[in-house]
Amino acid sequence: MYSIAICDDEQSFCDSTRQILIDIFEQEEEQASIDCFESISRLELSEKNYDLIILDIMLGNENGIEYAGQLRSRGVETDIIFITSSPEFALAGYSAYPVDYILKPVDTGKLKQTIKRCLKSRRSLPPLLINSKESGRIKLGCEDITCCEVIRTDIVLNLNDGRRFTAVGTFSAFCEELPKPLFFRCHRSYVVNMSYVERIDRYSFTLSDGSTVPIAKNSYNKAKKAFVDYINPVEDFI
Prior knowledge:
The chain is an alpha/beta fold. It has two domains: 2-123, 3-Layer(aba) Sandwich (Rossmann fold), CATH 3.40.50.2300; 128-231, CATH 2.40.50.1020. 30% of the residues lie in helices and 33% in strands. It has helices spanning 11-27, 40-45, 64-73, 90-93, 108-123, 171-176, 220-231, and strands spanning 2-7, 32-37, 52-56, 58-59, 62-63, 79-84, 100-103, 128-132, 136-140, 145-151, 154-159, 164-167, 183-187, 190-193, 197-201, 204-207, 212-214.
């Protein structure tokens, strides 16, 4: 499930863009959930982790570029498409590494090309095939898994939409199947998706949904390095 947030203070724009996205995803034979927000402050209240944010640059007193910069400083790698009627903001907007910058009124063809680019990037990670106790053999996107943990003898997969699946097998073998460096085994009973990590403390990761994942004492230095290398591979932890 591809999750999208549209953040714009024009209700008509939100409605029309949502319909365009519905049509695009039907054509691509992909499932998507689409939420609309009239302000950045309302978007911030959402507990969902979005694959894509379509963000107006100026929303009353709120600034989309500043907000996107805050997301990047927190290590959030959500794809961002800036939408605006003012082309002079383009240069400033690219400092937040958006996937595109689209002027109003939205060109449906251009938006479709950008969405297809986002989907192609997402598909570059092969899906994870697991044998689950709940649903038998299922396919999950690696990018949808926030962390995995061992509870008694069960391997529990926590997903970004709140769902949980119980995988069958050994935890060590399961961890070997996860792509690196996206996933890091920080504890004998935990592995974390680094794209959801917002902060590292002694001895835990804090994820974007506010939950924490423990770090084993003997893994702390490796965890620090994994955290910084994932955000910026060329800089060392200070």
